[in-house]
Design brief:
Length: 422
């Protein structure tokens, strides 16, 4: 398929909607581009296959190396490594033994079991809310997309920090959308002022911890400004809940806003070590979503293995050592990277980006890291803007100093080869 796209300078964005090509022709052109990337060894960081579970080390194969390679893993959001915690695994096994392997139906028509009820009550209590204040979704993605599609209509407006997750953007397709530059309060205030008389519901949506830069929202100021202009605040704290805050309640706890945020969304696939998502809000909003969210009505819900989450949530309070170990690893690794002159931005979490900028050089960096036995995420468009390509690392509580030193040595090697320090 002949196109005018220069593969040497192209990114995935160039293939989203190629003028004059139908869907199958666009797919063919995109396949030629990904083939080109693979031939130039810039795709071996994608769709790696793991031969073991989440952990500080993983055995992986790539499109170019079918022999399993042992790597330091910097790709997992299993921050506390609860996917491997014996008590969590035992609770999941017991859930399967009691209930079987599936829920059998959507929540509204027979798929709502008592383990779902227990999980929702526990999540609500985790945030200091009443038992009717939480609702579980099949994934963290759908907790945002399905809930927002139900809540916001054409008479309403979603006011988004530009750095929010893709699931939020998808959830806002049936409503009006205004965006403000990341953490830019001046732009946010102008939008809120203008929206006061135009829209019935003004919902400001931010992350607690931002998934690509690892930085925090300016949550106190954003909450005050939102309420000043009669709006509501939703915080997606998928990467903060269970990980940061004095009691592991996330960025919202750091800013002492647990009882003030109108809608909290989160995931069960990161600190809690399973899969799924949730919404925490008023009992009235939760009741509305039970009957109006299409995911709740038409999609089967979480499997009995979710019983492991009941123990994982308890462990946040019962075994705070995991959060302490993670925080120590973050401090150590950040210092190692900054001492090399690498740009890690303003991260305040277990997500530590190494910003490079050029997508193709970033692909080369991912390949060199892998050759050195370090598996890290190469993030280019659409994960970030074209100019913001980076290697994203995610740390775990169970990384040892030996693991981290090997990773730091690999970054030093990459820097010598590609000159990525700034």
């Amino acid at each position: 398929m002949k196109t005018n796209i220069n593969f040497q300078k192209a990114s995935f964005k160039d293939f989203e909607n190629i003028p004059g090509l139908n869907a199958f022709e666009r797919a063919e052109a995109f396949k030629e581009f990904t083939d080109y990337m693979e031939e130039n060894r810039q795709m071996n960081f994608r769709f790696m296959t793991s031969k073991n579970g989440c952990g500080p080390e993983m055995w992986v194969t790539s499109p170019f190396n079918k022999t399993p390679q042992k790597c330091i893993s910097l790709v997992s959001n299993d921050y506390l490594n609860f996917t491997q915690h014996p008590a969590v695994k035992l609770a999941a096994i017991q859930g399967i033994e009691k209930y079987g392997t599936g829920a059998g139906a959507s929540p509204l028509i027979g798929g709502h079991h008592d383990y779902h009820e227990m999980l929702q009550t526990k999540i609500a209590g985790f945030f200091g809310r009443s038992s009717e204040s939480a609702l579980v979704f099949t994934t963290g993605y759908t907790s945002n997309s399905a809930a927002l599609q139900a809540i916001l209509k054409q008479e309403d407006v979603a006011i988004l920090d530009m750095a929010v997750h893709a699931s939020v953007y998808e959830g806002c397709k049936e409503t009006n959308v205004k965006m403000f530059l990341h953490n830019d309060l001046d732009v946010l205030e102008r939008i809120l002022k203008d929206a006061q008389s135009k829209y019935r519901t003004r919902l400001v949506i931010i992350d607690g911890v931002y998934s690509q830069d690892g930085d925090l929202a300016r949550m106190i100021e954003i909450n005050e400004m939102t309420k000043k202009y009669g709006g509501f605040l939703m915080v997606d704290d998928a990467h903060g809940i269970g990980v940061i805050g004095n009691n592991g309640r996330g960025a919202i706890e750091i800013f002492n806003l647990l009882d003030k945020v109108d809608i909290i969304s989160g995931t069960l696939s990161k600190a809690f070590g399973h899969v799924g998502g949730f919404i925490v809000s008023t009992p009235e909003i939760i009741n509305f979503l039970k009957f109006q969210s299409r995911q709740q009505v038409f999609s089967s819900t979480s499997t009995p293995a979710a019983a492991g989450l009941l123990k994982a949530i308890d462990l946040i309070d019962e075994e705070p050592k995991w959060r302490k170990m993670l925080a120590e690893n973050v401090t150590y690794f950040k210092k190692g990277l900054t001492d090399m002159g690498l740009n890690i931005g303003n991260t305040e979490s277990a997500i530590i980006p190494v910003k490079i900028g050029d997508a193709h050089k970033t692909g080369d960096a991912g390949r060199l890291l892998l050759e050195a036995g370090v598996y890290a995420n190469t993030i280019v468009y659409p994960g970030v803007a074209r100019k913001n390509a980076r290697i994203r690392t995610s740390l775990m509580a169970t990384h040892t100093r030996e693991h981290l030193d090997k990773a730091l040595n690999a970054f030093e090697y990459v820097n010598q080869k590609l000159h990525i320090s700034q």
